Amino acid sequence: KEQNADGMVTVSARALILRKSWENVSQIAKNGELIEVVINGFNRGGLTCDVDGLRGFIPRSQLNNGSDYQSLVSQNIKVAFLEVNPETRKLVLSQKKAALVTKFSELELGQLIQGKILAVKPYGFFVDIGGASGLLHQSSVTKGTIRNLREIFVEGEQIKALINEIDLEKGRIGLDTSLLENTPGELLIDKEKVLLEAEDRAQKAKSLFNKKEV
After folding, report:
1. CA 21, 26, 32 angle in degrees (round to 5)?
2. Segment 197-200 long-range contacts (CB within 8 Å, at least 24 positions apart)
3. Across-strand partners of 153?
4. pTM, two decimal places
5. How confident is the model at residue 7 (pLDDT cuts 50, 70, 90)?
């Protein structure tokens, strides 16, 4: 910034261009849009790229494969925004989040998915649904009474479940198997039958989600 004779501060053309870039980037981030960037460098922590004249940074932990990350220099990759802060000039991007956003856009409430149990926790199951992780909370497993979650599903087991929550901000997908039951606790008694007929049962349950959305 320079002061002229009138004591007014004139902002340089470069500063104005940069301010405009920050405004553009902030808007794209707010809209949750993905962008494609060319990787132009690397350091110990990750990769650097140019975003509308600004220096963007992608931490190694936010890459789909952080081990051989230097090989991505000069490559085009799709990223989402993690942090946009004009004050501290921090522009942090994520390839992992971009993959998640893409996955989320393919999903809808009431959709039947197939997945694999990743982990059994005291409060429910984490389920791998191909590129994203869903949570089947204990309250959404069955309308019957559960003594132990492992009596229903175990690690590595393939299951079918309905999507009952999609929260991109928290990166969370909620799942439900209780809506596939014809009678409360059916999953405890005849799990194979419930999963075998899951497609037909999901059609009936879908109407509940349609009502929810109205």
Report:
1. 130
2. 198/112, 198/160, 199/112
3. none
4. 0.70
5. low
